[in-house]
């Protein structure tokens, strides 16, 4: 039996107006040429064999995560944690383009521009609680990621037990491009990736595919897109999850990041933006095999929000000493300040609203960013992020 969270009838419906879960309220019907039309659920739930199956169901919106989806997934996961008939959870997505391309930042932008930051922060609060639930889930949590996985999609999958990438896997954390920062647990995961790969991804927002994702540890397995359905059925049939995954996994081939891995490990090791830029400029100036890569990377960094880069650097510095819960609490402090700041709204305006691709950051240069102001983003707030006890 499938159940779901009702889809918003308007493209950018305010978060406060979304329905929490199908079943708590009847899905609205609309008349069109005399025929009733019921919106597609945004997320589907199914019990199949030994598995609880979650399907993100906004393929036309690249399965972007909404507040209503978060509100539907969280209680279902808590119920399945108590259900002895569910021995594993599988998370997948409808369509072939995207697993989840991130949170619906346009909705959040609209709320903030209207002075309704509290509603936007309610989304972030509940999303981070869900991220923590997945990271502490008592049963195997398997994400089948065959398409774009960014932002909110990373938060739904990165903290689970297993992360399986298909042929279409495309990962990035591009938040610094829109004046945000790599959140949803990026503070915990990214600085722990080997050879400064996570720092590189946090600062650049660059995209990687399946072989790279497996190589740096963002993925635990690679499975061909054509084999995802068979894997899903095998997981639902029961048996040891690790053995089922191993039986379906393949070698995706050499990782392209290997061509620059040693240089990235050296240039991004300090997680300090100024030191990274100095290393890139030095490599570009002396020529050699890394000169073009260094020059292009440095040029790209200069287009990002200076404030976002500085925040990301502080995340990478603090992250290795934090638990997942502590990292998410720190991120909620930061996002509370960002939601009342400038660069997030300017970045979304430039890239997603007006699409002129000319954001006017404040301050405009990295040298003008006040380190004390960045550190203050991480200071305690009046309403700290808290996590419910257990999974009941």
TrEMBL record:
* BP terms from Gene Ontology: L-valine catabolic process
Task: Kindly report, in one word, the top-level EC class recorded for this enzyme.
Answer: hydrolase
- Which residue ranges does the record assign to the Enoyl-CoA hydratase/isomerase domain? 52-378
Record-listed E.C. numbers? 3.1.2.4
Q: Which reaction does it catalyse?
A: 3-hydroxy-2-methylpropanoyl-CoA + H2O = 3-hydroxy-2-methylpropanoate + CoA + H(+)
Cited Pfam families? ECH_2
Keyword entries, A-Z: Hydrolase
* SUPFAM superfamilies in UniProt: ClpP/crotonase
Q: Annotated Gene Ontology MF terms?
A: 3-hydroxyisobutyryl-CoA hydrolase activity
Give the matching PANTHER family: 3-HYDROXYISOBUTYRYL-COA HYDROLASE, MITOCHONDRIAL, 3-HYDROXYISOBUTYRYL-COA HYDROLASE-RELATED
Q: NCBIfam families given for it? A: PRK05617.1
Protein name, per record: 3-hydroxyisobutyryl-CoA hydrolase
Source organism of the structure: Azorhizobium caulinodans (strain ATCC 43989 / DSM 5975 / JCM 20966 / LMG 6465 / NBRC 14845 / NCIMB 13405 / ORS 571)
């Amino acid at each position: 039996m499938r159940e779901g969270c009702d889809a918003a009838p308007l493209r950018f419906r305010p978060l406060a107006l979304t329905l929490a879960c199908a079943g708590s309220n009847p899905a609205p019907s609309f008349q069109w040429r005399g025929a009733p039309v019921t919106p597609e659920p945004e997320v589907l739930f199914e019990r199949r064999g030994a598995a609880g199956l979650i399907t993100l169901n906004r393929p036309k919106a690249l399965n972007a995560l909404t507040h209503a989806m978060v509100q539907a997934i969280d209680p279902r996961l808590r119920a399945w944690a108590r259900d002895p008939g569910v021995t594993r959870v599988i998370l997948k997505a409808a369509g072939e383009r995207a697993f989840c391309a991130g949170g619906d930042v346009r909705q959040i932008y609209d709320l903030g521009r209207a002075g309704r930051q509290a509603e936007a922060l309610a989304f972030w609060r509940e999303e981070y609680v869900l991220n923590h639930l997945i990271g502490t889930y008592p049963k195997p949590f398997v994400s089948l990621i065959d398409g774009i996985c960014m932002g909110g999609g990373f938060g739904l999958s990165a903290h689970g037990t297993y992360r399986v990438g298909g042929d279409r896997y495309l990962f990035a954390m591009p938040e610094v491009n829109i004046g945000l920062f790599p959140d949803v647990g990026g503070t915990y995961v990214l600085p722990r990736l080997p050879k400064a790969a996570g720092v590189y991804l946090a600062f650049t927002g660059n995209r990687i595919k399946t072989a790279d994702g497996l190589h740096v540890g963002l993925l635990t397995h690679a499975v061909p897109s054509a084999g995802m359905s068979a894997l899903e059925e095998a997981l639902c049939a029961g048996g040891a999850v690790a053995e089922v995954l191993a039986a379906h996994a393949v070698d995706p081939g050499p990782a392209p990041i290997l061509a620059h891995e040693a240089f990235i490990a050296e240039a991004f090791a300090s997680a300090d933006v100024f030191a990274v830029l100095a290393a890139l400029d030095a490599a570009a100036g002396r020529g050699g095999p890394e000169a073009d890569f260094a020059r292009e990377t440095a040029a790209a960094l200069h287009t990002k929000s200076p404030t976002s880069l500085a925040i990301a650097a502080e995340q990478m510095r603090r992250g290795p000493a934090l638990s997942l819960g502590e990292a998410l609490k720190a991120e909620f402090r930061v996002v509370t300040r960002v939601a009342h700041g400038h660069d997030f709204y300017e970045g979304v305006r430039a890239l997603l609203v007006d699409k002129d691709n000319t954001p006017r950051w404040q301050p405009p240069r990295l040298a003008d960013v006040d380190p004390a102001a960045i550190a203050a983003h991480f200071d305690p707030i009046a309403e700290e992020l808290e996590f419910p006890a257990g999974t009941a």
